[in-house]
Design goal:
single chain; 241 residues; alpha/beta; Rossmann fold; 7-stranded mixed β-sheet; globular; binds adenosine-5'-triphosphate; ATP-binding; ABC_transporter-like_CS
Amino acid sequence: MTRITIEHLTKSLSGRNILQVENLSFESGEIYGLVGPNGAGKTTLLRCICGLIIPDGGEIQLNELVLDRRTRSTFLKHIGSVFAQSDSIFDLTIDTLLTEHYHYFCLKRPKDWHELLQNVALEITPKQKIGSLSLGMRQRLLLALAISHDPSILILDEPFNGLDPDGVNLTKKLINDLAKDKVVIITSHSFADLNDIMTQSVVIAHGQTSGVKKLAAINSDFTDGLADFYREFVRHTNSLN
Ligand SMILES: Nc1ncnc2c1ncn2[C@@H]1O[C@H](COP(=O)(O)OP(=O)(O)OP(=O)(O)O)[C@@H](O)[C@H]1O
């Protein structure tokens, strides 16, 4: 069983409070849909969990392991993540990207990269430049990399962006298969896609989070399900800010 626990997490950027998360926890076997308006703090929260942003206060724990400078590299080995694509990788070949990825995470590079790409139905050669791939192909490549070290936590920021319907379905199937023994956290503005795969949801607005709620409870408590759960929490935080 893997559990991520977050307590009293705060982060300010340019003198503005971006995150104030009191208590939040995520467990393996569940797919969490993290939803919130643009600029609500979704990516910042996920980057904090991945150790890519250092919070100003509070604590993030993976089971008994507290995330700090000393434990960060151990923490990273448990996490697979895909964030928005940066243009800076476009000039790299796939081969270089793989080398840099495994070096950064201090992991052994798998011998068979064909197998890696088969997981996401990609047919590409290692000498190809990242920039020559379509947006959807790059998404699949980054997902293949994220899951290649069998992480216990999978963090996907907008994983359906740029994917065609086959790519969306393949990603959903992969996520479903992987979720059996992992913590999966996904952000998306597509409630339809989230409704297809998530088992629980949490709303974030103005850097504050709602309680985590099971999909079945969301659908029984709110007429319009996730959309109402989202609207109600956003309205609540708007009234406080
Ligand atoms: N480097 C930075 N410096 C200052 N402010 C920042 C920085 N990065 C993000 N922010 C601000 O932090 C807030 C949260 O941004 P974040 O990207 O986490 O939101 P989000 O919920 O992921 O949004 P979206 O749905 O648009 O992707 C935004 O108001 C953003 O402007």
